[in-house]
Amino acid sequence: MAEQAILEVQAISKEFSGVRVLNSINLPIHRGEILGLIGENGAGKSTLIKIINGIYTPTEGSLTLNGEEVQIRDAHSAKSLGIAMVPQEFNLVDSLNVFENIFLGSEPRRKNGLLDKAKMRARSKELLDRLETDISVEAKISTLSVAEKQMVEVSKAMIHDAKILIFDEPTTTLTQHEINILFDLMNRLRDDGVTMIFVSHKLKEVKTLCDRVAVLRDGDLVDVSTIDEIDEQMMAQKMVGRELTAIFPDKADPESDEVVLSVKDLSVDGKLDSVSLNLKKGEILGLAGLVGAGRTELAEAVMGLRRKQSGRVSIYGKEIAINNPRTAIDNKLGYISEDRQGRGIHTDFDLLANTTLISLKDYQNVLLDKKKIRETTEKYVDLFNTKTSSLKKELQYLSGGNQQKVYLSKWMDTNPEILILDEPTRGIDINAKSEIYQFINGLTDQGFSLIVISSELEEIIGLCTRVYVLREGKIAGELAGDHINEEEIMFYATGVKVMEQI
User: Which of 76, 110, 304, 361 is the most exposed, fewest CB within 10 Å of its CB?
Assistant: First the structure.
């Protein structure tokens, strides 16, 4: 790998409303390397890559591209300079087709001025084929899973043969198979001389993929190491500035066999086929499986977000017809969606509005009780250690981890007794993950019962006392105790083993 810098970040600082979030960052990025960029939520990673991509302008400092200082005023000027980004939160239009999204804002035209849709379709298929995905270029974005949307975002970033590609948490919704395909593509792009910045909280992936690692902490660049000089434990310690204790708390076995939630023969057209399961009081139950197995669809059907073809849902032994989320909420159910920005929070609302949005009726008589809203929001900010300069700060200015904490606060304010958490730590750093794991585990001591859906097997293994594995819309296996391990989960998820209750 050549040591020549294609891009140099020179004394870059950034302030928002007088609060400095980046402090004089100097970082050369070498031509044809994959640079890992790591740090806790709020460390400044997103701010730095948004400056490189032209979304933010620096308060101080400059960027040098190929030895010349450049002004990158927006994403369009970044593209013209050969810089593109795969964002953590999707920037797709649900009502448009896949190929229309991939070329959105960069549509080729025929000589008569009309869009060259044939060229768009052909190029889109070529890009998707490189990712070894069978997504149809004609499919509407609204019909795709979160993982499929991620693949569309990757394709979108590649249409102009960028020389610098920025990947912001690209693997959080992908299966291991899809991650392997993406990493193979990135390695091939590196061999072709493309430079990449890889932002991730998955330190094992950083160690596997990257050539160098840059560590940000509280807006400062605290370390830059070659991958041979640093291991995962050292990365984590540099991120938080101290030794880390075990990330997962001791598992809390439920003391009661009381079933608080029962699902019987639940079917959703084309997604679920006669799924039955039960959740015990005080239990953390895991739902594992590959992308498309039906985990999210099951959660949405239970919450009344997805129409059930057949089946029954009972809460505390009483059958409940849940056809909408309000009925679910009234029956003490809560749901943290995997699509945080699409279905969970309003990024242009502040913390006060987001925290109390679902339970707003509890804060009004004739007028809203603004004092009570503030007191509630302050309570959850303290509970989750949410980092914000103001309760009136719009969520778009918070890090992904702090947005997730506000999302959790929003559902906790509905006073649920049963919580379904779908990818609860997506895009969250290792320290924030540990905080949320401790919180989840602590809820069981208060009588809460939880279902955790996660693509990260270590999360399922580390948190759950019992696990259902789904495959192609059916329960493929049920695991407990020592049987909850990566090998057995994958055997059921891939069909190597058939249903066997432990």
Answer: 361
